[in-house]
Design a protein that fits this description.
Strand order of the largest sheet of chain A: 2-1-3-4-5-13-12-11
Strand content of chain A: 15-25%
CATH class of the largest domain in chain A: Alpha Beta
Order of helices and strands of chain B: HHHHHHHEEHHHHHHH
Largest sheet of chain A: 8 strands, mixed
Chains: A alpha/beta (368), B mainly alpha (314), C mainly alpha (326)
Oligomer: heterotrimer
Number of helices of chain B: 14
Number of strands of chain A: 14
Helix content of chain A: 25-40%
Strand order of the largest sheet of chain B: 1-2
Number of domains of chain B: 1
Radius of gyration of chain B: 19 Å
Distance between the termini of chain A: 59 Å
Radius of gyration of chain A: 22 Å
Order of helices and strands of chain A: HEHEHEHEEHEHEHEHEHEHEEEE
CATH architecture of the largest domain in chain A: 3-Layer(aba) Sandwich
Largest interface: A-C, 57 and 49 residues
Shape of chain B: globular
Chain lengths: 368, 314, 326
């Protein structure tokens, strides 16, 4: 019995020791960052040669009806419901595309790969995807390309050679700038903030946080980062984590960043239930419907996002253009239906546009 | 071991598999092609390997919920051994297999030495091993493996996927061990009546230790194949694996109370589930519908088997 | 149980008997106290009103679900579908509330649904002898897939304020806490003093002996599943009304958390022993651990490993304690 207790205590001590000693997790990744200029002068997008993949002997699909499947990171959250809606809107408008959305019920790369594999076998013409992991998804996407299927990504990229084009909602550093600037406006230049994000291994969130750190250091150096907590894509967990943050830091905490469309409304709810509306700012990425109650009560001032419906819409338009052969490697822009001309950046990425801010004035117009 | 009764469940299951294959082939003409079937074999290799070990575990009346976490942990360790520690890749593979086995031994020790019920012990190690994976990896993936490594997960020998060969060989070995060796008989005896087994001289604790270690080894093997298939390592690999594996094993006729079960049954159970997942998707059923069908099939299959059993007086 | 221990060690005082029959519960309570004192010393805000409130209220639904799960495990069975069931309950409740039905219907119907579903599961388990883990494994899939199919992935928002039962406060304490405490006490009394409660222990300990003693194991099993459905239903309501939106996916790993709470709380997986008080305490302990790890600045990377170690340590301590008193 004593041996047991000693062993257990030793283990706990060792583990806790390394737990404390380990560098604090910010949520960001280790890749190089590229912060924008503080005053917002747009950096000229670097012209890169086309680096996307090519389908092997794709059949001529010009003008013909095509079947497209959309496989997002997971189904059942507002964000991907919205992109799915955009895809359906574009399909209805184009008239010659049959599109459906299917995917795993949790953000799991194992399952997503199986879904894509099944659809390859079933012989779809095009695959739209939002990757759970950029490298892990590459082999199965390359398999799709080798079978002549058109592959276009959106929201979360894969390695460039595994897909033909990637519709980027906004540049990572552009989103970072938008978020940090909004937060600085609300909590002041020397406010302290915390971050509620998804998991350790979600690439987009990690990129944004890294860029946010770089931008804040360059342009708002006195703002203080307190900590980052992970909340997966679960509503209740996000709420509990945000509440714990509020309890832990008390008055030191002036702002919370919500890095996913689940984390932001949950954080806003935590702030509301703690009675701290107005004293703790919530800035983040979220869909308007989930944030309407908080924006209307002035608990949250701005919600930054791009328009995910537009993102899905653009993705399908790009897919149609690729299938028709009107969008070829080396193009500098593509016509995307009602969105007009979208720019090509970074070789094989298509930029949706600047981030969109939902505020009290305009949030009522959106329903997703 | 009740041979006639056992065979009855496997027969029912085999019938179900045939019916399912026929129906699914009818629903989609892309289902019953050599290419698709071989591809499915590739995709089910990881679950299949772990299910072999799980069959032994459940036959002894135990359970192992930590297999998914062991897979994730060994995948991370594999990457760490190769990239951070600098081992040559083949050595890293062996080290990863050893780590998985060690994790399994850990499970076995907690269960045999400290007498913790397997459900609770592996519930704790599920969290512990996954936590170790997250802590050691610090959320970094390891990528950039040499081309030859991808042979295991993406290559073919004689047009059959490599991992399918591995699975087939492992299945054969496990079937022989469980069905024909004294160790297999000891496994059944432990599950049927542990106290009696002990009194008749069977080394119950050693048997269990081997079985949990073996399951850890198989989980590590599955991890290497998985990493080879997706060319990267992540700390969340294998989450949810345990439920898929248990469903397959239970569907295959292994009794959760111990003492009954065969490798053939497990194989049939896994084939049925994989066929359903794939065939339904090919005929246009979306992910959620497939999950529901699998749940219903599980209950009905066991129900039918129980009724058939009852009517034989077995 | 306590009489058996008294027979073995007749020289024991009533206090000694109390300690040995409630040993695990006392251990958990001790852990909670140690945690609060320890973390409170490091960061006093851990003991603040709002934080204690969050710990208790935010996870009350897990404690309530664990009451039902404890009963199931005491009866010798298990339910791995409770997480999916709670997700479905929450969605049904939310849909009814948004659909304009009277609030009490939005509260009552989901609970009845949970009880009905579990009655079916219990009947299957009791009368066809299919192991409960198999039936509930199948149920888990059916409920999870069915939920996504039915909701098409959409979230439920805009629920009427009156519906939010978990957020109503009585004397400043969220109602969820009252539910947790009151239901635990009622369930504990029920299990200890009512005929059906004792039948559950008997059937869980040795089903055939119970039958020989005149009990009807099949009906007991169905009954305990229905009870479990009731608690799962309440837990679902609390879960649904914590936030302003209801997700259409089931909370990940909820069933494992609930089972772990029951087991840590002293319910033996072999059936026949344990109390619901232990599981409630364990649920509170988990919530406290989760919160404390953030307060202690434990690197997020090692969170889950530390949690796993703590579970292991608690279980090993319990095993050691059992061996001593036996």
């Amino acid at each position: 019995m004593t041996k047991l207790t000693v062993a257990a205590a030793l283990c706990l001590g060792l583990m806790s020791g390394s737990a404390f000693a380990a560098s604090a997790w910010t949520g960001g990744d280790d890749l190089p960052t590229n912060p924008l200029a503080c005053d917002g002068t747009a950096a000229a997008p670097a012209a890169k040669p086309y680096d996307g993949g090519e389908p092997a002997s794709a059949p001529d699909r010009k003008g013909k009806k095509i079947t497209v499947v959309d496989i997002p990171k997971l189904i059942g959250i507002g964000y991907f419901n919205a992109t799915s809606k955009g895809i359906q809107d574009a399909a209805a408008e184009l008239g010659n595309v049959e599109a459906k959305t299917d995917g795993p019920t949790k953000a799991n790369i194992d399952e997503q790969i199986t879904f894509i594999d099944n659809y390859i076998t079933s012989g779809v013409d095009g695959i739209l995807f939002a990757a759970n992991d950029p490298v892990a998804i590459a082999p199965v996407l390359k398999k799709a390309l080798s079978k002549g299927i058109n592959v276009v990504g959106y929201d979360a990229n894969s390695t460039p050679d595994a897909r033909q084009w990637f519709v980027n909602q906004a540049e990572f550093n552009g989103i970072a700038k938008s978020l940090i600037d909004n937060m600085a406006k609300e909590i002041g230049e020397d406010g302290s903030f915390a971050i509620v994000t998804s998991t350790f291994t979600t690439p987009n969130q990690a990129r944004w946080i890294a860029e946010m750190a770089a931008y804040a250091e360059a342009c708002h150096p006195k703002m203080k980062w307190l900590e980052t907590v992970e909340a997966q894509e679960d509503n209740n967990l996000s709420f509990n984590q945000a509440t714990t943050l509020i309890n832990k830091h008390g008055d030191d905490l002036k702002g919370i960043f919500g890095m996913t469309s689940v984390a932001t409304p949950a954080s806003a709810e935590a702030v509301t239930q703690a009675g701290k509306c107005g004293s703790i700012a919530v800035v983040g990425l979220a869909t308007p419907n989930a944030m309407k109650p908080y924006v209307e009560k002035d608990c949250v001032k701005t919600v930054v996002l791009w328009n995910p419906v537009d993102l899905g819409y653009a993705a399908l338009q790009v897919m149609r253009a690729v299938a028709d052969g009107t969008l070829k490697p080396g193009a500098t822009s593509v016509k995307a239906g009602k969105l007009g001309d979208l720019q090509v950046i970074n070789g094989s990425e298509i930029l949706l546009g600047p981030p969109f801010s939902f505020t009290k004035e305009n949030i009522g117009q959106f329903d997703f | 071991m009740n041979l006639p009764a056992l065979l009855r469940h496997e027969t029912v299951l085999a019938l179900l598999v045939i019916i399912a294959l026929a129906t699914l082939a009818g629903l989609s003409d892309r289902f019953f092609t050599a290419e698709n079937l071989l591809n499915q074999g590739r995709l089910m290799a990881e679950v299949g390997l772990v299910a072999l070990g799980m069959t032994f575990v459940i036959v002894t009346g135990g359970i192992d919920l930590s297999v998914g976490s062991i897979l994730g942990l060994t995948a991370i360790l594999f990457g760490v051994f190769w990239q951070n520690v600098g081992m040559p890749l083949p050595v890293a593979m062996v080290a990863a297999l050893a780590s998985g086995t060690l994790a399994g031994v850990g499970n076995g020790l907690i269960i045999t030495r400290f007498k913790v019920p397997p459900l609770i012990a592996t519930l704790a190690t599920l969290a512990l091993y996954r936590g170790l994976a997250e802590g050691i990896s610090q959320a970094r993936s390891v990528r950039g493996y040499p081309e030859w490594f991808f042979f295991f997960g993406q290559g073919e020998i004689l047009d059959v996927p490599v991992q399918l060969w591995v699975l087939a060989i492992a299945t054969a070995i496990c079937a022989v061990i469980l069905g024909l060796t004294p160790f297999g008989r000891a496994t059944y005896a432990t599950g049927a009546n542990e106290v009696a087994a002990r009194f008749s001289g069977i080394r119950v604790d050693a048997t269990k230790l081997w079985i949990y270690a073996g399951t850890g080894f198989l989980a590590a093997l599955a991890a290497i194949i998985f990493v080879s298939r997706v060319t990267t390592t992540r700390s969340d690999m294998g989450t949810g694996l345990e439920l898929d594996v248990i469903t397959g094993v239970v569907l295959g006729g292994t009794s959760i109370f111990g003492g009954r079960g065969t490798i053939i049954g497990t194989a049939l159970g896994l084939i049925l589930i994989q066929a359903l997942k794939n065939g339904l998707a090919l005929s246009g059923v979306k992910g959620d519908g497939t999950i529901v069908v699998i749940g219903i099939v599980l209950i009905i299959a066991i129900l039918v088997s129980a009724i058939v059993d009852r009517s034989r007086g077995g | 149980m306590s009489t058996a221990v008294a027979a073995v060690s007749p020289g024991r005082s009533p206090f000694g008997r109390f300690v040995s029959s409630y040993g695990q519960e006392i251990v958990v309570l001790g852990c909670i106290a140690a945690l609060f004192i320890g973390v409170g010393a490091v960061n006093p805000r851990f003991l603040s009103n709002t934080n204690i409130n969050s710990i208790f209220a935010g996870n009350a639904y897990i404690a309530v679900a664990a009451i039902g799960m404890s009963m199931i495990i005491i009866a010798g069975h298990i339910d791995v579908s409770v997480g999916s069931l709670i997700g479905v309950i929450a969605t049904i409740a939310g849909t009814l509330a948004v659909g304009g039905y009277p609030i009490w219907i939005a509260w009552l119907v989901p609970v009845l649904f949970a009880m009905a579903v579990n009655a079916g599961v219990g009947a299957l388990v009791a009368y066809t002898r299919i192991p409960s883990i198999v039936v509930t494994l199948g149920m888990l899939s059916i409920l999870k897939g069915g939920l996504i199919s039915a909701t098409a992935g959409a979230w439920i928002t805009d629920m009427p304020a009156d519906f939010m039962i978990a957020q109503k406060r009585v004397f400043g304490i969220p109602s969820a806490v009252y539910f947790m405490v009151v239901l635990t006490i009622l369930a504990a009394l029920f299990m200890r003093y009512s005929d059906f409660g004792r039948a559950i222990y008997a059937v869980g300990g040795n089903s055939e002996a119970a039958r020989a003693a005149g009990l009807n194991p099949e009906r007991t099993v169905v009954g305990v599943f229905v009870l479990h459905g009731f608690f799962a239903g309440i837990a679902g309501l609390l879960f649904a009304t914590q936030l302003q939106v209801i997700q259409s996916t089931v909370p990940p790993n909820l069933e494992l958390t609930v089972i772990t709470a029951s087991v840590i709380g002293g319910v033996s997986i072999l059936g026949g022993t344990g109390t619901v008080i232990g599981s409630t305490l364990a649920a509170i302990l988990f919530a406290a651990i989760g919160s404390s790890l953030i307060f202690l600045n434990v690197s997020a990377y090692w969170l889950r490993a530390v949690l796993g170690l703590m579970i292991l340590a608690t279980v090993l301590a319990d095993m050691a304690r059992r061996r001593r008193t036996l």
